[in-house]
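INFO  loader      accepted 1 record
INFO  loader      residues=207
INFO  predictor   begin
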Amino acid sequence: MQRGKFIVFEGIDGSGKSTQLKMLADVLREKGVKCVETLEPTYGTVGTVLHDILSGKVKADPKVTAALFVADRLDHLTNSEKGVLKLLNEGTTVICDRYYFSSYAYQSVEVPSEWVIDANRLAAETLRPDCTIFIDVSPKVAMTRISQNRETTELYETEERLTAVREGYIKAFEKMKNEEKIKIFDGDKAIDEIAEEIKEFVVSEFF
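INFO  predictor   done
INFO  writer      dumping tokens
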């Protein structure tokens, strides 16, 4: 059995990555590709705590938050019932909304980046994405989208923070360019135009 592909979508909040992920999944299913959509943080035991922290319901030190992301990620990978590794080995393509580059970008704003990278090393060594797709959008545009589409904002959803996070992504991509396959798309374009570019890239590269 051929192993499934692991494709990750990354971007700052408001980038449109979740929309693009769903559009790509629909395209692949139309082509007969068996695929599953997933996300981080998960809604498992650890991931649920993280969602509460991000929404402001629970307070936690940034180092604790960073460590919880690592724990949630490892469970996401190795869970014996529905883990990413199990799905891939069954021939299912997994499309994930955020992975360890999110930790590099978001947690490194308040926690030393080398610590964050080291803490996620086991996840990276266990499974690197076949490709990381980054939807690059300006923080100002992202904040406009967030304010229009949501009633509440999360912990990281300020223009200042998103600017720092975007810079964190760019630095991490540069640092990891020889180890990771990263493809950047202009998120300021129209939704359908971005989707077409992503489809052409993914289908030509992997399917």
